[in-house]
Amino acid sequence: MVASRGFTDDYSPALMTDMYEYTMLDAALKDGTANRNCVFEIYTRHLPEGRRYAVLAGTGRILDALAHFHLADEDLAFLRNRKVISEESAKWLENFHFSGTIRGYREGEMFFPDSPILQVEGSFAECTLLETLLLSILNYDSAVASAASRMVSAAGSRPCMDMGGRRANEWAAVSAARAAVVGGFKGTANLLAAKLYGLHAIGTAAHSFTLLHDSEKEAFTSQIDALGVATTLLTDTYDIESAVKTAVEVAGPALGGVRIDSGDLASLAQRVRNQLDALGATNTKITVTNDLDEYALAALQTAPVDSYGVGTMLVTGSGAPTCGMVYKLTERENSAGIMQPVAKRSKNKGNVPGRKLAYRSYEYNLADCEHIISGSEDQLATYEPNDDWRNLLVDYVVNGEVNNEYQGNDAIITAQEHRAQALHELPITAQSLMKGDPAIPTEITIL
């Protein structure tokens, strides 16, 4: 029986991978190609059906993971015992540290089909080991951030909060909370995410707390005594009208808020608002929950709601739980030591060879095109974009040195602000919830 291990520190990101990455490493070390310099690229061939844009999230988590991307002795023993790697590979892996370069779109940036979201350069041995980890982080986090962004747009000025932890894998719940904030959410119910990333934590009581007590009044009194009158009371365990009356009776007109978790939310919110005002609780806020998505939020725009709690549809990407990103080799050193562009030619799965530059052009302060420039390192070094093009790439890791600017709570908030600004710069059709083409076209130039 395997002993239980910790949640984060005891699991190596270097094992959060597919076996073939290690078998490729082993074969490449044996045939002498492992040290060939390579450039890998992450991109998506298409957005989820009908989506106008997507939001990049997860790059900060990648940088966190890189710091722990190494194998303990017991992990190496596991790989040897399973005949995944040879002794030669085990020796090579003993002191592994990624020494390459990673550049890509900044967290919170909009991306489209063929956007070079992340480019990883280094030896084949180093780069191939990162494939699954990078894709699993970016595919999921970006799906959640993209859904969150659509929800935030639909909610208007009303804040959205993450309440999706119980609807996802326990690990996914933490990353979803972070990605939701990148996408524009203002807080999370997940305490581990709040601790790890410095996020605002929210939460008061569930229906079980009301059912625990002999009466709703006793439950409300207990919560007020514990948390103060600024708390939010859950009002739909029994009868909402009676609960609102009791809530104000217990807390007084200074009651912080009430939450509605069932029924026709728009109609109930209107009735509750009128009732609260009649009872003198004119500043008491109304929060609604109950399987909300961007379409439900849009339908609630005229209802007197102050904030939203979103769960299932957030952590599942609102129907698009992955962004379909892939990790492809686009340039590699050949046997003569010369860097050579390469590409797949598979039907419907081909990719653009070569390393990339990425820009966005604007007209009247609105983005009108994504420009992807592909070529050799020398060609890209002398390429001169138009004056009104904005460079979309930043350096995350240079020769193994991580840029800490893109980690931690400040980086998350910066990414949240960047998402808002980048979305504002897209044509307004980007915020439409109706199915359509990407908000701007992508133009690819091969030098």
From TrEMBL:
Residues 15-139 form the Nicotinate phosphoribosyltransferase N-terminal domain. It catalyses: 5-phospho-alpha-D-ribose 1-diphosphate + nicotinate + ATP + H2O = nicotinate beta-D-ribonucleotide + ADP + phosphate + diphosphate. It holds the Pfam family NAPRTase. Its EC number is 6.3.4.21. Pathway: Cofactor biosynthesis; NAD(+) biosynthesis; nicotinate D-ribonucleotide from nicotinate: step 1/1. The keyword Glycoprotein does not apply. Catalyzes the first step in the biosynthesis of NAD from nicotinic acid, the ATP-dependent synthesis of beta-nicotinate D-ribonucleotide from nicotinate and 5-phospho-D-ribose 1-phosphate. This is Nicotinate phosphoribosyltransferase.
